[in-house]
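User: Show me a protein chain along with its predicted structure.
Assistant: Here is one chain, sequence first, then structure tokens.
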Amino acid sequence: MYYPLYQLAPIRLATVLAGLFVAWIFTIFPYPITEHSRLRKNLGSSFYLLANYYSVAHETLKVRLSGKQGDIASKRSPGRRLDKARHKIYTKCNILLSDLRAQSVFVKYDIPVGGKFPAEQYERIVGLLQDTLNFMALIATTSATFADLHDDEEGSRWLKDFRRIITEANLTSQAVTSVLTLLSAAIVNKQALPPYVRLPEPFTLTKRLDELDSDVLSVRHIAEPGYASFACIQIVTKNLTDEMKELLAAVKELVGELDFSYHIVSATNESSDQLEGTLTYTKERKRTGLADIKD
């Protein structure tokens, strides 16, 4: 006994559609693993990877400035190991950011469980992360010139003064790593940021130049080795600080910020001519934005 094709085809089609519907139901329930939660967790992971990359780039710059990177051709030299680790993390960051951009497209077709999902804010943060990664990579690439300054035993007076300045200078700050790690934990754990998070200020050489020679960074020495690299790092560091400020503001808008401030309220006793100052302390705990980050 068999069914004709015009009867069998609709039955098979209905069976396939029913199976797809059941699979779709059990994809969301009883445990909601949606594109929303994956996008949030991957965004937090990208902040963590970016912090790791900046830490390696910071150490690379310090090694090159101090001339301790060793023979770059040797696999066991500090400079070679740092370059290998930096390139590996850079590749991971780019792959994860590409996945985030792809997930932000699919999230539009997901069911908004728990409220409207802030897709626009996520896309803006991903764009800022990509710009920040590019600035960090530019700092690491440009600093390769500083390693050549230590190979030159003899040089002009300008080169000796310039080498002494950049060796003693802290062109970058590890505070960036701490801030990025904090932002990663806030997004992954869906917790508000602590109050008064501070970003490092861009490095300036004003005081140091006054002590040594203010003519070292004059435009007359623009053709000297290392001058262009130093100027590029100074500009990129300023842009990196601006990107970090925008990232911090975007994450605050997404997860909120705790507020432990105390407010003083004065009360007046109407039965007395004198003003009695009664201090009342009120504690506010602000967690705005947490509703937007729900999966």
